[in-house]
């Protein structure tokens, strides 16, 4: 790789949180941390007005790998683990502490060059969201039970080209006041082929969330919630 203002070093954080660190395409793993701007530290972002909420701060690629090749309509899987090296340890806090309950979301932003693009100033649209179901189970519990994996579909009508794919999990155990909700997000670099001509409405990061959003300032305990409003726009469908 040449002329990249990024490093390829792998630094491992040590705290009880989580990192999106592997993308699967149609059931095939693309490689651990490959094509994902993984952070050195697994801790959350809590300031929803900060640029850190875009793709987890000024974090580095750990691999100088290029875009992952995906086709519009492909089945994708985002895989989270507690730390970058906890995936095979079987520890109870992998993929995340069970008490870190909340929603899971996926966004896309079209870019000229996914490998080198800056993360500021991009226009994002949501393609997946999962919150609290009618039985009272949270998206994070489903993620935990699926060993960190979340399946979603890349809409078949999105335009071909390069994107950052922002996969996000919000833990609400401290969200009764703001700042308190813990936002965990990383951005994968993808190159989409076989797309359509969709022109979905977009939002900005920061900007898409406010500290007063009912899905950001949220009482997780007493009484046990029965409904939850996922923050951000509704997920785009073709
Ligand atoms: C997710 O997709 C994979 C294949 O891509 C499949 O094996 C797995 O059962 C799916 N998981 C869920 C929870 O649907
Ligand atoms: C993206 O896919 C197109 C079509 O296959 C290909 O021509 C192009 O080289 C790819 N770009 C990158 C950066 O992978
Ligand atoms: Cu945590």
Poorly predicted spans = 1-15
The small molecules bound here are: 2-acetamido-2-deoxy-beta-D-glucopyranose, copper (II) ion
- Can you name the CATH architecture? Distorted Sandwich
Structural class: mainly beta
Q: Count of DSSP helices?
A: 2
Number of domains: 1
CATH class: Mainly Beta
Q: N-to-C terminal Cα separation, in Å?
A: 36 Å
Mean pLDDT metric: 91
CATH topological fold name:
Coagulation Factor XIII, Chain A, domain 1
Largest sheet: 6 strands, mixed
Return Rg in Å. 17 Å
Structural shape: globular
How would you describe the oligomerization state of the chains in this entry?
single chain
DSSP strand (E) fraction?
25-35%
Q: What's the number of extended β-strand segments?
A: 10
Helix content: under 10%
Encode the helix/strand succession as letters: EEEHEEEEHEEE
Protein name: Glycoside hydrolase
Keywords: Hydrolase
């Amino acid at each position: 790789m040449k002329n990249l203002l990024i490093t390829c070093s792998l630094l491992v954080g040590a705290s009880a949180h989580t990192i999106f660190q592997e993308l699967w395409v149609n059931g095939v793993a693309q490689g651990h941390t490959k094509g994902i701007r993984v952070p050195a530290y697994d801790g959350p972002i809590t300031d929803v007005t900060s640029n850190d909420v875009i793709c987890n701060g000024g974090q580095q690629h750990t691999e100088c790998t290029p875009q992952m090749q995906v086709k519009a309509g492909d089945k994708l899987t985002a895989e989270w683990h507690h730390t970058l090296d906890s995936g095979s340890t079987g520890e109870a806090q992998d993929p995340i502490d069970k008490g870190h309950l909340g929603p899971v979301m996926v966004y896309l932003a079209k870019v000229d060059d996914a490998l080198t693009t800056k993360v500021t100033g991009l226009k994002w649209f949501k393609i997946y969201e999962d919150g609290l179901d009618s039985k009272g189970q949270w998206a994070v519990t489903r993620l935990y039970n699926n060993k960190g994996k979340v399946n979603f579909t890349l809409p078949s009508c999105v335009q071909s080209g390069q994107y950052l794919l922002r996969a996000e999990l919000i833990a609400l155990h401290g969200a009764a006041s703001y700042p308190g909700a813990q936002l965990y997000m990383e951005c994968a670099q993808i190159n989409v082929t076989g797309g359509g001509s969709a022109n979905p409405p977009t939002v900005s990061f920061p900007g898409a969330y406010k500290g007063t959003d009912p899905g950001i300032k949220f009482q997780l305990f007493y009484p046990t919630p029965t409904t939850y409003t996922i923050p951000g726009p509704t997920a785009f469908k073709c």
